[in-house]
Every structure is written in structure tokens, then in C-alpha cells.
């Protein structure tokens, strides 16, 4: 018996991930599933690192990785090569979706978030008009007499709101049949707003209508997964300016999606 297990393990080591997936779908052998989970563990770690700034205030990276492993195991069972995209892409989306669901369930938006965010945007606009240049985080926080750490936390929340908006636009249910688009108002968000059919196509059309710099910021941030600071370095402009471009692009995308799918 032991010799048979050792022989099977050696056989799996020589097989590609794709071959193991096919073999698992045929046999549903738990040993193969465990091997696949270990091979794709790097994806759970990668997503946990990429999204760390979005959950670090209330969750540990180890917990996120653990949830990612569970998503991988469930994904292995549900993956359909004839319907779904490449497995790595399929499972990465499931892990990201799991993290976003955890963030939403952990009530990470404080009651005064919207008021504070609006105050920041008003202060940013006022200081820009007064000074003639995009104000720094320190200038805005100082004008509002707000602790800089609190200011940056609100900015991270704002970024997460935008991630939720775009991610939920392109995420369907397990059968790829429905997509929900959340509003900025989490408490007043209708849970029965679902879109079917050409949602992704409409999103692509919306992105194409953006200005070139807006498209570039969206691509670098959501596709290449660079941070705001890194995007600012790539485009050789200030981080507040990138944040401004990003916010305007998101506003346009959400308006376009709402007008065409709402």
C-alpha cells in the first residue's frame, strides 16, 4: 500500500498542472487535489500581498492566505475547462472575490466615512483653486485639522470603494450569469440589481471612451495592479493628481455602466 502511494506521488511530480487537473476531474482523488492546492498556493499568497493595503486595518495576511487556500480547493472542484478561462485566471478571480467579500462583511466602512471623504474632496478642490497646484496629503490633512494617519485610512477606503465598484461590475455568479454593481452608499445599496449578457462588453466600451491618460491609469492600477504611488512614478506626475484622474475615470465608468445597463 505504501509503495503504491509513493509511486503515485512520484507520478504526480512528473505531471503538469493541466494534466493533474484533467486527472482529478476523472478520478476526484483527494491526493491529487491536495497536490494541486499546494502548486497553486502561490496565487493565494500573491493576491494577499497585492491587496494587503485594503484589509490590513482589520485582518492578518495569514488569514487572507488561508481563505485563499479554501477558495483554491473549492475552485478545483468547480472548474470547467470548457466553460471557464485558464485555471490560473479563474482561480485568481475567485481568490480576489473571496477577499473582497470578506472586506465587505467586516463592516470596514465607519459611519462618518462619506462625510469625511466629501470633506477631503472639497478641501482638495478649494486648496487647488487657492494655491494653483494639486495639494499634498499633508496640506489637505492640515487644512482639515485631521490626523494624517486617519486621512490616509480614508483614502484607502476610497480606493477600496472603487475596487468594489469595478470588480463587482465584472464579477458574475458561479455560472457567469449575473453581475451586481454597488453604489457608493453601502447601506442603501439595492441587493437585487443584476445585469446579464454583455456587461463586460459594455465596460470595455466605457473604458474606450475615457481620455488617454484616464485609460492608462485604469490599466496600470487594475490590470497591471500597480499602486497609486507606482502609477504616479510611471506617469511622472504627483500621487494626488493620479488619485484625481482615477476618481474622475471611475465616475465616468459608473455613469456609463448605469446609463447602458441600469
From TrEMBL:
One of its GO terms (biological process) is DNA-templated transcription initiation. It comes from the Bacteria. Residues 227-253 form the RNA polymerase sigma-70 domain. It holds the Pfam family Sigma70_r2. InterPro entries: RNA_pol_sigma-70_dom (IPR014284), RNA_pol_sigma70 (IPR000943), RNA_pol_sigma70_r2 (IPR007627), RNA_pol_sigma70_r3 (IPR007624), RNA_pol_sigma70_r4 (IPR007630), RNA_pol_sigma_FliA_WhiG (IPR012845), RNA_pol_sigma_r2 (IPR013325), RNA_pol_sigma_r3/r4-like (IPR013324). Gene3D superfamilies: 1.10.1740.10, 1.20.140.160. GO terms for molecular function: DNA binding; DNA-directed RNA polymerase activity; sigma factor activity. Keywords: DNA-binding, Sigma factor, Transcription, Transcription regulation. NCBIfam families: FliA_WhiG (TIGR02479), sigma70-ECF (TIGR02937). This is FliA/WhiG subfamily RNA polymerase sigma-28 subunit. It comes from Enterocloster clostridioformis. The gene is sigD.
